[in-house]
Amino acid sequence: MRKRDRRTRGVLAVVAAGVLGVTGCDAVGGDSAAPSESAKPSPKPTPLWDRSPGSVAAVGDSITRGFDACDVLSDCPEASWATGGSPEVDSLAVRLLGRTGAAQRSWNYAVSGARMADLPGQMARAVGRRPQLVTVMVGANDACRSTPAAMTPVPAFRADFEDSLRSLRKALPKAQVFVASVPNLKRLWSEGRTSPMGKQVWKLGICPSMLGDPDALDSAATLRRNTVQKRVEDYNKVLRDVCAEDKRCRYDGGAVYDYRFGTTQLSRWDYFHPSVNGQARLAEIAYRAVTAKRP
Prior knowledge:
Elements: H1 2-23, E1 56-60, H2 62-65, H3 92-105, E2 106-108, H4 119-127, E3 133-137, H5 140-143, H6 154-171, E4 176-179, H7 185-192, H8 196-202, H9 208-211, H10 219-244, E5 249-251, H11 255-258, H12 276-291
């Protein structure tokens, strides 16, 4: 009987151990509950950057207005790299929203001739549309002045850019911002000066701080152009640094500045603003930046 009792107790112990394993109780007598069958996985947090925003507003200067892209001395917003509907450009808005979506949910508040001091006002108007993405391209006119001494000081440039982002954040905390770098004005001079027509047009007063007296290669002219170029680089550093402080802002990493455009990408009327081809290249750069995967 004792042997049978011992065998019985042994079988019960094995069965008990099996039951304990199935029910999830710990071996030392704890009573931690088994996972509930109705428990659902926690939802993934909303990403800080949405690579497919549902609406786009553009602010900036004549480049974003498509000035001189389609006709002489006139805006051509349909050719804008940011919001235009031209099939030849395939704008950022069209790439993100489709042609119909871009026509309904993209808005262009850029103004030809605008400088950074004008950006806060443009941003205030754009906010009224409650866009999910705002594109910014401004700064060329701050460097393109009558003389290098007349260029916008870097601290003022920074202050107006910071003010613009603050006003956006106050109204639309989750809106995304894409910031394009200021184009390379010295490359524009080196490309356009090969065209006799371009040089004649520049005499009308287009960006005299860089493009004035385009054939002059003396030390004074070289210093003047280098001073303007350094200011553009300083502006781009401001755009990069201020944007980096905003978790929903993306700077293009200097892609527009670094793009090695040729005369094909320049307007045949002024050899300064982008042509339709140039606008298409800007759209490509912006789309890559907005849709890029980042950690």
